[in-house]
Amino acid sequence: MVKMELHQLLAIVAILAMSSSFVIASDPSPLQDFCVAVNNSVDGLFVNGKFCKNPNMVNADDFLFRGLQNPGNTSNPLGSEVTRITEVQLPGLNTLGISIARIDFAPYGLNAPHTHPRATEIILVLEGTLYAGFVASNQNNNTFFTKVLSKGDVFVFPQGMIHFELNVGKTDALAFSSFNSQNPGVITIANAVFGSKPPISLDVLTKAFQVDKDVIQYLQAQFWYDND
Questions:
Q1: Helix axis angle, 202-209 relative to 213-220, nearest 10°?
Q2: Residues 6 or more apart whose Cβ sits within 8 Å of residue 189
Q3: Cβ atoms of 91 and 52 closer than 8 Å
Q4: pLDDT per residue over 7-61, tens digit each?
Q5: CB 188 within 8 A of CB 119
Q6: If you count DSSP H runs as helices and E runs as strands, how many of each does the chain have, helices first?
Q7: What three-state secondary structure class fits 134?
Q8: DSSP-assigned beta bridge partners for residue 124
């Protein structure tokens, strides 16, 4: 009897494990046609961190954003600018599980190593030449996957992987990225490690990076620019 109950328990755990892998694969599927985001609770329903606009008050403008034809300002230390369109800029995206970004690069501009904790990213190069890559997790020996991308090339950065793009050309470059989340999130590695507020303990960082405290203090004293 106990053996039978154990088998049943193991079967239930296995089913739940398989089902949960689908549940966390991307943003939850919406249970309504749309949920246009609003910033107040008047006649609203709280979904995915936003209140839904009354469906009877929704109009075409809620699903429209204008402006991605405008270049981003790349006059900064990184030489790049990311213009993200999430549910904040385009309320009609709320609960739909997608978003988009324009990335402008000055010559030799860099979109610094970063990660998106909630989304896979697919990037399309429209102008210029980009050196792009991502690093796999410890499970896959931190393998580095990289390619030089030219106009018309498409590359995928799996969810959560640290990745970057560097303009290796002498002219401006332009790319568009799409994400399978309305809010992919961004963690820029250098900013997070050396520019956190309050700062991470020197004892932690010196041991993690196997360097002297002077090196860590120098890095923490730098201005870590955020290009989006």
A1: 110
A2: 112, 113, 114, 115, 162
A3: no
A4: 554 454 444 444 444 444 566 666 466 677 777 666 555 565 677 888 889 999 9
A5: no
A6: 4, 13
A7: strand
A8: 154, 176
